Amino acid sequence: MTPGMQRHIPMLYGWQATNLGPGLVFDYYRQPNGQRAPNLEEVILSQGLTAEIKRAIVGLSAFILNNAPLMRHPVPFNIVYAADKNLKLVDCIGTYTMPWRRHLPVIRNQRRRRHLAYMSKSISELQKQYEKSKGSF
């Protein structure tokens, strides 16, 4: 995995034996205090779209545009805001549809734009909720 990909996609370490049986092991993101890293929904609802969060969103959007990862719609609760100030796609990687069409550049470009539009709409809706909760319309 390239360093650019590691900035936004957790590293997969493979199948490991667990107390619940075999499981896939990925990076686990924490805050500096050891608590789990919040997802983007939690961050926006607690502090709104700060300049730091906006920079992270721009970085993730550029990654999606430039790399076209196979993914489902990226929604804020499946995107983690990690201690390195980058957003991580933690539960929308892969696809259940389009087994052969996903390789056609024109279709992948359309999907990228749809994914970003969906993510942007979800973020805007969360920001409106945050503003409403703070009494600033």
Model description:
- A hairpin with a 2-residue loop joins strand 1 and strand 2.
- The chain has 137 residues and is of the alpha+beta class.
- The protein has helices at residues 3-6, 40-47, 51-67, 105-134, and strands spanning 12-18, 21-26, 79-81, 87-89.
- The longest helix has 30 residues, at 105-134.
- Helix content is 43%, strand content 14%.
- The protein is built from four helices and four strands.
- Helix 2 runs parallel beside helix 4.
- The strands form two sheets. The protein has a two-stranded antiparallel ribbon.
- The mean pLDDT is 86.
Summary?
Helices cover 43% and strands 14% of the residues.
Q: Layout of SSEs?
A:
Blueprint: H1 3-6, E1 12-18, E2 21-26, H2 40-47, H3 51-67, E3 79-81, E4 87-89, H4 105-134
Antiparallel strand pairs: 1-2, 3-4
Helix pairs in contact: 2-4
Could you name the key traits of this structure?
137 residues; 4 helices; 14% strand; alpha+beta; two-stranded antiparallel ribbon
Order of helices and strands: HEEHHEEH
Helix share of residues? 40-55%
Structural class, from secondary structure content?
Answer: alpha+beta
Strand order of the largest sheet: 1-2
Quote the average pLDDT: 86
Main beta-sheet strand count, sense and barrel state: 2 strands, antiparallel
Oligomer: single chain
- As a percent range, the share of strand residues is 5-15%
- What's the end-to-end separation, in Å? 43 Å
User: How many separate helices?
Assistant: 4
Shape: globular
Number of strands: 4
